[in-house]
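Margin note from the TA: students keep mixing up input and output lines. Inputs are the sequences; the output is the structure of the whole complex. Example:
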Amino acid sequence: MISFENDYSTGAHPRVLEALAATNLEPAPGYGTDRFCASAAERIRAACADGTADVFFLVGGTQTNAVVISSLLAGYEGVIAADTGHIAVHEAGAIEATGHKAIALPEHDGKLRAAEVEAYLEGFYADANYEHMVFPGMVFIAHPSELGTLYSLAELEELSAVCRRFHIPLYLDGARLSYGLAAPESDVTLPDIARLTDAFYIGGTKCGALCGEAVVFPRGGMPRHFLTHVKQHGALLAKGRLLGVQFDTLFTNGLYGEVGRTAIDAAAELRRILSEAGCTFFRESPTNQQFVILENSQMEALAERIRFSFWERVDDTHAAIRFVTSWSTTAEDLAFLETALAATL
Amino acid sequence: MISFENDYSTGAHPRVLEALAATNLEPAPGYGTDRFCASAAERIRAACADGTADVFFLVGGTQTNAVVISSLLAGYEGVIAADTGHIAVHEAGAIEATGHKAIALPEHDGKLRAAEVEAYLEGFYADANYEHMVFPGMVFIAHPSELGTLYSLAELEELSAVCRRFHIPLYLDGARLSYGLAAPESDVTLPDIARLTDAFYIGGTKCGALCGEAVVFPRGGMPRHFLTHVKQHGALLAKGRLLGVQFDTLFTNGLYGEVGRTAIDAAAELRRILSEAGCTFFRESPTNQQFVILENSQMEALAERIRFSFWERVDDTHAAIRFVTSWSTTAEDLAFLETALAATL
Amino acid sequence: MISFENDYSTGAHPRVLEALAATNLEPAPGYGTDRFCASAAERIRAACADGTADVFFLVGGTQTNAVVISSLLAGYEGVIAADTGHIAVHEAGAIEATGHKAIALPEHDGKLRAAEVEAYLEGFYADANYEHMVFPGMVFIAHPSELGTLYSLAELEELSAVCRRFHIPLYLDGARLSYGLAAPESDVTLPDIARLTDAFYIGGTKCGALCGEAVVFPRGGMPRHFLTHVKQHGALLAKGRLLGVQFDTLFTNGLYGEVGRTAIDAAAELRRILSEAGCTFFRESPTNQQFVILENSQMEALAERIRFSFWERVDDTHAAIRFVTSWSTTAEDLAFLETALAATL
Amino acid sequence: MISFENDYSTGAHPRVLEALAATNLEPAPGYGTDRFCASAAERIRAACADGTADVFFLVGGTQTNAVVISSLLAGYEGVIAADTGHIAVHEAGAIEATGHKAIALPEHDGKLRAAEVEAYLEGFYADANYEHMVFPGMVFIAHPSELGTLYSLAELEELSAVCRRFHIPLYLDGARLSYGLAAPESDVTLPDIARLTDAFYIGGTKCGALCGEAVVFPRGGMPRHFLTHVKQHGALLAKGRLLGVQFDTLFTNGLYGEVGRTAIDAAAELRRILSEAGCTFFRESPTNQQFVILENSQMEALAERIRFSFWERVDDTHAAIRFVTSWSTTAEDLAFLETALAATL
């Protein structure tokens, strides 16, 4: 069945698979010390315009968030996130399992507002009992957010300034970063992110790789003995080459950008199709996730023809659903969807 | 450089890569709910002769040990392991990071002895202060062990009987299980392991896959809400298909056995070469890891021609080193080693 | 300086101190196995009208919450609490430090509403992605709440019914239980609490003891090996007698009730004084904590004459402050306060 | 029954109880910010001859070890201890519950040897795989040790030098410190301990207090936000005055020394009695714990007349038992023991 269910339903971009095949028999040392990882890290540093950035390859998103966040927090600190943040809702308590609280602030289109983060931090230190509370030790954002929205450069600048004023790191979850970078509406570049955050990851799993996320600590900011921390959390891949080869390929000849643009172009066409089919949009999103509201009966009829994600119940008779494009979405997939919508709505 | 450094220095067995390419564009639902995982699990149940076994796919060995052990222990319990056990030494405290103690008992050729485990358990409950101590809540063994040695069927039967007498699970780390199953000296089969343990994993990373370990809970013994536990520990792969396709291939047409036999045959030739070169064996091993003692100067000369692992310092002038074969070891590799040894010893 | 700062600013009720002195030289075995603890537990069982209740003595409130909650939750579970709940705000992340999430629901006068808890639980299991979220594994309430308010018997019955419908424990933090039981407005008794909850504690620290909280698991519900769990969390007192003697005294000749009534009577007089002084009440409270709003300048003037707690900022020129009575509040203290208020407001 | 079972079987030294009674009605702020804690800390700084030492009062020994050790270790670090160390054996995994490994080295009369610690540290950093292992992040010793033995000043100097060479803290568990300081055989003073360690605690629970341990961080070395760390671990006492008053009393007019000397004098008499009764000593101890070997039948007969601790099984027919003196041991107790021994041996 044609699927718009998510951006990880197919395998890897063909050039990634080809690179894995081409390098398969070359012996390489383990745990990320191979030449592929070194090359990928170098290409990522270049793409970030930060020659001093530390780069480390991990396997998946929840793992990356838990490993990075716990490496950057002191025991008495927690992490501020939007109440729709992945770490606050959909990671099964992975942050708490490392002993830290996720401190939820209200979301606005899936995003934190710098002024509200600042007010929280000021209020915390103004509270007479703050020593009996979890210290706000870092700020977590996702770009694109879990709702497909994007921070503007001005918004990122403000968040960064607040974090620096309070001497806490700003961490950006870039699980779908290629789509954020490729969105025409966005004025944020990879060098901007490297300049304004203290840690972030460049998503691979949802952006064309079989698996893998590239963690970047700008300005040589990787925590001491990070490799041991990663190992302790079961996140150190023996065949680090698997990650190195993939990211080396994604950052060669602009493939990471190409992956993003393909999906973003498909998303534009998807928006047109949904709009012309008369769908009400649940949220506006400039990236590869599109959300619309259907009547329950329409949703059920459509589900017999095509795969999508149920997002949330809207009322007794309506639901929000999500369509996602990726590097592997084809014109045929979109045409099929248009036909399916016409037949069911 | 020709490498005998370990069994994870090359990529995947070619048939595994081929299967990944062949299935690459088929959309599949995430998190292990795809048809490849279902098929792989079914094949593994058949290979284990346990139609009721629960099978779950994880990414790496340390991750698997930490996730499975923490899912099976109560908070007040720890895990008994040989003092050479991977979890006791080389996993950077991953077990302790989940809040549990690794209780080390003396190793004998890398193995636990059932009688010593039983004596420990009896002594524990005979101690007037046992409520102030960590309860021994499970037994961890590796097969092959970290030193390449194997439990006999009789030894496994004894350990299993002790665990069942004390109502604690027996868990077997099968990171290199294909080599153990393929060793001619061994009388232990996969159905034996499924029958005698309460949880074990079938190693993929070191046995022909790009990554992946298949956890088996015989007799429907998977802990309640294990998927959430896995997610919480950052170990749930979004593209579960990556693991499903690989294990489905490894358990089709006997590939997992073939991977093991290739390496074991190479190890037999390796032993012959080492022996004829006059090497002293550090430990006897019937599997794909072979340990010899060299003078430091010999070791250094050899290291310029071929890759191997430094194992440990023996005395001021000697060291133990390790050679490892795998599915990708070739006759040419072995011939090269023979020549290199002749040139340096 | 006369203090209405809190209910733990003086030492112990004189009869408690006398009992400690009277038993001081009698040798007793350690860790709660002494005859004082046995007697205290028996008296508490009688007071709860539950002859099968398990009783365990711990030292302080945050400790008790963390130890009890972590003993009752599975790894994949969190605890529901009001967003003003002590565990959600003022315990420095003690719950998260044991690996569990505190799931905050909106407070209503410091309390959870059964209907909202039920809706949360129903919504959780209706969510297609619930396996990727923290399971709601128990419900935490405080009685009196952190704002001094009380659950009615009907409210407790409803919460209990919801918890039983979803097979999760209801846990009640009784740090100030004596004041709740003594409040004339309350229709809730100790046997009610034992009948309707699955675990609760009878506060000692804030109710006349030097230290100590008595945890009650009604109907023999103490988790297996709880003593070891307590020890592991550093909460097992070597001289358990210290807790046993105190609670034995508090539950002899109705002292625990007397402690509560003394403070509640003082609180009634306190309310009269505050009201007649023209204070605006910040919250209505039927127990020993009274909250009023003062202008900042009034607050500062009053602070030079008497001790109270700053509670929270109301606006730029006003603050909420808290006065607390206890067993040691005297008529002279109250008269002094009346004079101080007259002089400053 | 007369008890030599341990040094925490009676209540508090009478002067401690008197001080609690005398200060009982004076209101004091909570959480250790009271004048008693301030005074006690000042007296302890003077006794340590370190005017810059940070002092913090906690409740019990296991709690103190877990809280202090976890505050001083990075996530990737563990703590070296003798394999008889309290944290390695009898604290129910409290260290592991905070995520850290207790790294056991062989004991020699209950003590670590500096040369062996140094060899372990050198070996660790010489191991090619050390990044995959738990970093040795501090050294734990008990003085007196769990077997009643004492470090000499020279031994402490050596251990301190090793720790400083490797930049890791030396932490001393002084649960029974008063007895160590009072032992005539000892050349170690409190200022020596403050000078040579990075953290230690002065035991109260086993040395005359109802409860309480005074943690000392020499040279202003208390970790940042230690109070919040303490709170998070449920170890912050609301009525901190309870600890302040006790330690203020113990360090007034030399009471802490007196408590120690009383027990040490009693232990000398105890040794004479045991020796003259023909007992074989299991271990030589210069402090208040004395260990002898009895035939099982003798042990059982003696147990009907007097309380002592079973220590460990020696062989099928013999056991090691422990007698402990304290500030409350009387000449009558000792005379009773002498008679009881005469009647049973």
